[in-house]
Amino acid sequence: MSKIDPTYVKGFNHGYLFAEHLSALAQKMLKCENKAQYFTGFENGVDAFRQHQKVQSRSEELNSIRDHKHNERDQER
After folding, report:
1. Residue 24 falls within a domain, yes or no?
2. So what's the pLDDT on residue 50?
3. Per the structure, how many domains does the chain have?
4. Where does the pLDDT of residue 73 fall: very low under 50, low under 70, confident under 90, or very high at 90 and above?
């Protein structure tokens, strides 16, 4: 089992949190040309947050559709 570089993990966590709370700053930091482990982790953390947002948004959309259909069925009765 290979060990993950702690610098990468720190960058990943910071990237996720920056994307969540300081998105404008995260976008500026993504423009850095630095390919150190920290920045690779940072980029991956931002990407992970974006993917999580897409999944969460889609889930909320599906729940809304489901609730709407239930309401329509209740009104028909």
Report:
1. yes
2. 93
3. 1
4. low
- DSSP state, residue 19: H
Structural domain that includes position 59: 6-76
Q: Work out whether the CA dihedral 23, 25, 26, 31 comes out positive or negative.
A: positive
**pTM across the whole model:** 0.71
Distance CA 33, CA 29 (A): 9
**Two structure tokens written together for 37:** 């482990």
Residue 75 pLDDT class (50, 70, 90 cuts): low
d(CA 13, CA 36): 15
Determine contact, residues 10/40, Cβ cutoff 8 Å.
no
52 in a structural domain = yes
Q: How many CB atoms lie within 10 A of CB 49?
A: 19
